[in-house]
Protein 1
Amino acid sequence: MKNITYISASAGSGKTYELTERLKKVILEGKAKPEEVILTTFTKAAASEFKEKAKSKFYEVGKVKEANRLDQALIGTVDSVANVFVNKYWYLLGISPKQNVISQEDEKIYVSESLSSLPTDEQTKFFNSFAETFKIPEEHEDGKKCGIDYGFWKKDLKKIFDATRNFRIRDYKESVAKSKELIKIVTQDCCRLNFDREELLGKLEAVDRISYAAAQSRARDTRIKETERFRRLVNNQKTTQLEIGFGLFEMIKKGRFTTRDYQQNDDYLSLALQSNNVWVCEEVRDLQYKYVENLFEIAKRWQEEYIKYKKEQHIIDYTDMEEYLLELITNSKYECVQEDIQASYKYLFVDEFQDCSPTQIKIFDRLSELVEQSIWVGDYKQAIYGFRGSDTALVKAVTDRIERLNGKPNDTLSTSHRSWPEIVNVCNSVFVPAFSDILREEEVKLNPWDKLVKKAAESGKKDLLKCWTITENTKDKKAAQIAGNIAKMVQEGIKPKDIAVLARTNNDTFGTGELTSIALALKEYNIPTLIGDNEFKVSREINLLNSLLSLVVNPADTMARATIAFLTKEGYGAAEILDRRFEDLSTNKKDSDYFEEIPLIQKLIEKRDNYKSLSVSALVENLIIELDLYNIVKSWPDSDNSVNTFHTVISIAKAYEDHCIQMSLPCTIYGFIDYISTVKIKAAGMSDGVQLFTYHGSKGLEWKNVILVSLEEDILDDTKMISREFYGVHTSHEVEPNADNPYPPMMISVLPWIFGSLKKTPENVQNMIFANSKYSLLKRKIIQEEKRLMYVAMPRPVESLILVSNKDAGLLRLKELGVRAVDSIPDVSKADILGIGKNFVIENPCDMEGWKFNTPESKVIGLCGENKNYRKRDQQPSTCKPSKTVKAEIVYDSGSRITLKSSEEEMNKIGTCLHNIFCVLEQNPTEAQAFEIIKNHEMSLALPDASEILTAWTNLESFMTNKYGAKTATFHELPFKQYYEGQIFTGSIDFIWETSDGGVVLMDFKSYPGSKDDVVNPEHKHYAGIYAGQFECYERALTAAGKKVLAKLVYYHVLGVVVKLD
């Protein structure tokens, strides 16, 4: 870890602006070229946004070439960056060159499908017995719990799988020990059950005497019924001690023996005491031990089988990519890779550092030692993705370590470029003290931006801090009151899209979430909404577009034609379409003529030849605009969201292309159709509607007016905390990361919920948990997590902040985070409800019954003319036409060949293999190294003599040194992207030899095995001159990068000759 500048960037402080400015400065000052930069972001969308903003910075100062060359920088997610290096060095890693990337969705499918086959018969029997013993209930869609959930263990196992991948846990020994340690906290040694049946029966008689002496009542009858049920259980000699114990507990719980007569009876009190001991007895402890052991044994076996499966199927997942990259840059046997990275890259930029996983942080740590300078940007206060594998404690430890190494505080962005002064001051007053136990004031406090101070003053707007009091308690009625107040805002002229409602979650396990309830309530006022954390399914619009895309590929696709007719032409219902199909079949009509009269089909067929030449994203955009789909779908009922859907699909098409490029996958129309049917398309509703997001989902966004709900919730409720945070599957460090030891191992803990349908743990178990120091630490951890989540949500508004809570509950969530908030909302017009010296306007629910919002009619502007330029934008260098006729001559003949024993179909594979061998031989010129790569390529038969390949490389090096001078640097497979005459050429240059005077020699490797005369004969199909166009493309790219090209060579390594193109 060295030469790192860490920038602490609070919410709204302009981190993207800062990063782009620093990148611009680095490039304009000549400290690095665009292609010498690595920049990672958290999402593909963020990577794309950053690149465009960075380009605009160069355009602003007239640096067009530098802007265009930014496409040569390695900018993307950590996964995509890792994939670039894995694809480049796979032959060193000993993996197949044909690795397919398994998506997270596919991985989940694999996990689900493999779960049922993992346990042995004995383990399945144990899990079933465990479920029956503890009466673990199955949850149904109506929220009721009934029956036995025999698959309960799968949920815990899936969480173990997730933690294993997120934190690279390979050995479960410590995790098993940690889990057993937790189980010991809630059980007691020397507490083995030993019920005396006769003694129990005697005590039951004493309890019955009290019951029968009581006056007739339903409660009395229930007690008699429960004692009789338990008596039968005791009398059954086959029942175990544990079954008796649970039977006793159930009798005490259901019988409700709460009257004084029972509470003063020694026999009853003795039974009650014994019933509590059942949950902490050694028998229960032993069953939990066995459960944990079985889970981790299955997890270990699954891990081994999954690795085997991936090898057999030649697939890797995203975790593999990062691990392979970490291996390449840390293992000394890959020194050639580390030297290549050191020579190729000078700057590493990392965005959203706080969201990085431990593996990603280790990657950045090591890369900082390979590049000249690293600039990392993050914010501890916004570290909210622990459930995705980030490690907040590690992030803090690493940033502290950077401070120590630099000998000074980390850089801090201290100005809010988002919010007006009122919002900034409230956030400072709330969060500076909230984070004072872990962060310095300057790491939290922001200063209002002068421009926004002036803008706020000039606006004349007042009362920008508000609190809405809600008097109802049920979810739907609360939502109705919130919707009424929002309707009043809209009535007063505020645009719906300038209003955001943020909630802690939108998840009800059964039923409608808080945000969804508010959306439904707003519908009563005809106010449009967009739920940002929802997903919408494939719609009519997408079905129409998919059908049009299918016709571009296959004009005889009858299903696509029928779908287009059904969706766009009145009178073409299902019955009519079937009748028409039977009629056409009887007359032998061609499939390509099916529904030829439909205008949309006619228009598409006319343009089909042109459409076939477009990239997928360009095709999607052209179909939507040129075929006027916006206006076509406006005639459909409930088409309010159609425009938004098409906008989203255009974005998805571009994302699909990026995905294919990053993963080296073919980008096809059918591939896109499959992709859009499975991709999670976020945001349901109208983009100009009220925005409804969770706190998590709001990260990085901003709105003029933000309404915070979920503030009356008790986040420290012990019952919920124990069941959610103490029990279940969790990860933790035995020793917290710190600046001296930032990477302590992570462990998984499993404590199964054994209390059946009980809503909380029995009192004696709860007391044991409260008495343990681990619970206090857990509580502090939860408070810190909730502080960070609230920090993400509260600074989202630009102008106005509105807090919403139940009148009697006050702002309990904020109070539990250490804010001096009121216990209940006072009945006054203004009050300092947060205890920070700032008054909030108190508003009660508004009665807006009968009022409706007039939704503006959406207008679609058609094209004035048709786009006639159908030339493909994206090109490969091989398609580039030469500007002049070239001469090819042999300038070096080694006199030695490489023996090949292969078919013509294998020549491409052989060429790739030989090139990869050359990459490695430059660093380690041994026959053994060449043989190892041949073996990895499964080319031992085709390339039988590794020594010949070594000779071919050493011959080339000797020629190049003698002809052009000693190398100062070389580059293999150097990627580039070049804009030329409106087209984008993307590819890689096989080999570059750089000399001391800054000149470079370009070389392409070819494995043609024929005659030497063929490659210099202009009439022969293997004439070297056919590559002149792509060499011109290479030369333009290198000239733009400031390099002088000395020569353009083709090395026919199999023939042993070098050909020069002039």
Protein 2
Amino acid sequence: MEEEEEAEPTIGNESLIDLVFSWSIKDVLNKDLYKDKVEQIPTTFPSTSSYMKSFIFPLIEETHADLCSSMASVSVARTCEILSVESSKDYQPPKDLFYNFEVDKNNGGTYEPETGDLIAVTDVRPKCIDDLRRPPNFYHIASIQRVKAEKDCLKLRILASMPIVLEHDMLKNALFAVFLVNMTTYSRIWKALNSDLDSRNVNIIEKLLRPDSSAGDDCSLCSMKEKYSFVGSNLHAVIRSFGLNNSQEEAVLKCIAMKGCYHENTVKLIWGPPGTGKTKTIGVLLFALLGMKCRTLTCAPTNRAVLEVTVRLLRLVMESVEYGIYGLGDIVLFGNVKRMKIDDHEDLFNVFLDYRAKILAKCFAPLTGWRHCLRFMISFLEDPEYKYHLYLCDENEEDESSDDDEEEGEKGTLMKGMLKCNGHKKELYAQSLKNEKNNRIWRSVIAQALKENKEKRKWNEESLQKENHSHYGKTNQGNFLLKNKRRLNFREFVKNKFKSIRKQMKDFVINLCTHLPTYFISLEIVENMIRALNCLEYLGILLCSVMVSGEEIINKTEDGGEGVGGISEISLSKNKCLQILRSLPEEFFPPDIYGEHSIKKFCLDNAHVLFCTASSSVKLHMKGITPVELLIIDEAAQLKECESTIPLQLRGLRHTVLVGDEQQLPALVKSKISEKAEFGRSSFERLVLLRHRKHLLNVQYRMHPSISLFPNREFYNKQILDGPNVKEKCYKRSFLQGDLYGSYSFIDIAFGNEEVSDGPDGHNSLRNMVEVAVVSEIVARLFKESVALKQRVSIGVISPYNAQVIAIQEKLGTTYSTDAESDFFVSVRSVDGFQGGEEDVIIISTVRNNGNGAIGFLSNRQRVNVALTRARYCLWIVGNGSTLRNSGSVWKKLIIDAKARGCFHNADEDRNLALVIIAALVDVDQLDIRLYIDSLLFRGARWKVCFDDSFWKSMEKIKNIEIRKEVLCLLTKLSSGWHQPHKEGSPISLDGISTQLLEYYRVNELLNLVWTIDILKENSNCIQVLKVWDILALSDIPKLAKNLDNYFESYTVDVMNLCKFKLVEGNFTVPMTWTVVPETDPLEFLSSQFSGLSLKDRF
């Protein structure tokens, strides 16, 4: 598919691309290139011109920073090989340096070019930026103006910054296109900021400039009574039927009333904190506006947000008995098909512009479309004998398939209900006429047909592969075989041809009713089309069920006279079909509308509700497009103000509704200079700063009250109420046992360090591998419980650092599904990536662990708010409480609050987590692990455990985390006094003094934990302790035993006996303690103590 080219915006005589082309590599890498030119963007402006100009240099700096970042990480940039280069017919130096490139689609490259991409054309795959400028290498910056996909290659039209030398020797070497940045959005913003203000609609923008705190109040000329009378009682009832709360309903009614105001332009703010149903509110508002046929554009900063609100409206429309699918033609979603990932959203196919254009192009194809199908069906029913005669004369015409199973499958949903009648044909026909007005049956037919349409997308691709073999035909039970095939008899021909045409007509009817704007296809026409489908389907059943001759089929009785049995039934049905078919229109809009491009413009021009990103709304600035009356911007607080100027200047725009929450994350800004200048600030946030009135949605339906408590108090001044659903007992769900895993808890990880790691884009980020291990363990246990209880659970893992996100994703691997439709799925994303999302359980990994309380951008209040408000039932925060408390940020308040509420827990309260933490500490080679292993692993243990250095070296060599956990678990059991039952015989032969004390317990099939009982003096006591020596294979234990002989040679017999002494309590062995008398030799004292003891092997 060919991507459309957009004119490059200019300022004066210079476009943004020209400016970028003027930068050398040195300029690009100079982070201070525009530092002195970027000024603080004010909150108020004296004029529209000054407003627009205030964004120019911050935009240039942001573009520069993005390119600088890409250049710095060029070693990991996506690349593809260029097959050929030639000058374009538009090539006119020195400025219009247009070239045509060919790129192999199947060359294994990592990059598929898109329109708007800025690329480096070079003869080397760069491993660093110096490779681009190191002789004899060369590179040129180029902009991709157009991409056209062909069978085996992509054809690109590019604009180069410098002439490309097309010498024969140079073209012998491979050329590469290295992706840098996509300039589309930057260029569109540039165009909006530098447009001719006299030719644009700036009424809304001028309204945004008013610093008056009364802005946003109702129009002084429109009384409240007039406004609500405009809404109308019927529409008001429809709105109330959706079950909105008071704040949501009031927001919808005010926006609809605003639509009726023609005295002034209006900007309304709807404040939608997390979980307050802003998407539902927008969906109901759009549903009402759709019914009012108000031409409305809904945009958002991201494709994801656009898709979410589109799905919400479609759900309301499809559930509406009044609409069914008729009216979807008034809704259009448009944008980049790849970035929107439309192929993953089949429910949006029927409103997506590209798909709609393809469908309508087929419907209006002159030789194969609706008109041809309608005429053919009429002529076929009028004179089937003549059609049969043409069939016999045409040797090249292939017969229609007549598979009985397929015939049964063709009996649509409408007839399924009819076939349940008593079998009398007249009753059957009467029932069909009655049911044709039944909305439920109608919608079932629609759903079935739409499903078939979606399946055709794949079928069409497969059919292309079979096309070369189609001339061999289909045997069809021996009816025909190429030139020697048996020709169908008249009855077979009529039956098969009728079925084929009827199916085509059904597809056309469904597609026309779905995709045509209601202005061009009335409800009366739709009803007639459905009536025609009913009659045709009934006629098809009669043809299949009645044994008739050729003469009986062509019976042209039109006076309704009585025939014989089912023959008169067929005649009556045929005449009824002809009557309805002749009433249907052949054309629906002017015949000069043909081709996908023209149809796209037609759809955009006639839709009532449109959806796209703010950037893509530039398409509605095309000349001749029907003006937009109302603009709704969802996630408005996340949209840069300069980007919002693209839709705000649309012709005819009178009113704007901004829906968002300035307490959540703003737009992402890559340049620190531009960020400091408030380049990422939204119109929503600026108006809030100017005390513009905003309507609060004040009931949250997402979070358990224990989760919403802190963010509501900290970020929303206790203005948000908990919905009745989250207060119910069933909303308190327990996914894991233990206090750590309540609805809300902070799990303190006192151990582990943050570390710097390279991100996927070559930039540094932070990670904490101990937290990675803890999160992985919690997810594993959730999965185990989910499977055991057959409980559906969705898990979200959030971290502010990309390196941590990657580390967790790698740790989890492919063990768990990432499909939201599965019974257990896990989504791991950054805080920014989770904005707008929600899951049953959210686990936050905060990463930071240091002594000075440094937490960087983790202290950002908006980022914290987003992270804390994604969970429905359980929110578990994993982090180092000391670091976060010492930060002095909002995290300090959170830690204090968690402790006060009894929600602060040490991770080692959970024995499994303690094992995981120890194993992770060994993995990261944290040497001070030995200082606090007692507190982690042996808290409350009966035995003191000592380790030889060889044990830790062996632990470091074990890379499998599960084996490490087995070792630690075994140590925990030993420290409690557990011992394996004594077994006769030994798989290995040992001798020497150490064999009297040496024990080895199996860890797994290969490894064994080797330990002894030893005597340790502490203060004035001598106590028995466990001494762990190593983790070894059986074959290596004799060697260790020989080394230990030297260690135990210094022990007297009495001391050896004390080491062997066992005090048993129940099933456990407990250590003995002896008090040493002062000024007495410990060994002599122990000998005297030993003489009074009775040694028995209690095992």
